[in-house]
Amino acid sequence: MDNKQAIAATMQIYFDSMYLSDRNKVLQAFHPHAKITGYMGGNLLEQTVEEFANFVGAQTPSAKDQGEEPMLEILSVDITGDTAVAKVRDGYLGMIFVDTLSMLKIDENWVIYNKLFHVEG
């Protein structure tokens, strides 16, 4: 699997974590020291990966169980050595997000180290 495919696979795990309300998939996709940051309702929201994983896991029933259509669009991927920046558009909790994901390649696996999100709609 080349780097773009591996990054896409990590982004799919990330999306699946939210779509399935799967805390463990969050922990699989993110580095343990990752930060999740963005504006929600005009307020700055900052979370650790543990806080984000707990939030995602608490969303029950999951988007899949509610019959929501999955929405994940990879807008761009820029790879420089063992770092990358990916931009995705995804549907979650009835909103559309544009996420900027900074990624690291560690032991041949790509993980999200930082997530900046913007609520589009």
DSSP summary: helix tally:
3
Structural class: alpha+beta
Q: Which CATH top level class fits?
A: Alpha Beta
Helical proportion? 25-40%
Would you kindly provide a written description of the structure presented here, covering whatever features stand out?
By secondary structure, this protein is an alpha+beta fold. It has a single domain (3-119), classed as Roll (Nuclear Transport Factor 2, Chain: A). Helices cover 27% and strands 49% of the residues. The protein has 3 helices and 6 strands. Strands 2-1-6-5-4-3 form a 6-stranded mixed β-sheet. The longest helix is centred in the first third of the chain and has 17 residues, at 3-19. The protein is globular.
Question: What is the compact description of this entry?
Answer:
It is built from 3 helices and 6 strands; from the N terminus they run H-H-E-E-H-E-E-E-E.
Keywords for this structure?
121 residues; six-stranded mixed sheet; Nuclear Transport Factor 2, Chain: A; alpha+beta
Question: How is this fold's topology laid out?
Answer:
Blueprint: H1 3-19, H2 23-29, E1 30-40, E2 43-48, H3 49-57, E3 72-80, E4 83-92, E5 95-106, E6 109-119
Parallel strand pairs: 1-6
Antiparallel strand pairs: 1-2, 3-4, 4-5, 5-6
Helix pairs in contact: 1-2, 2-3
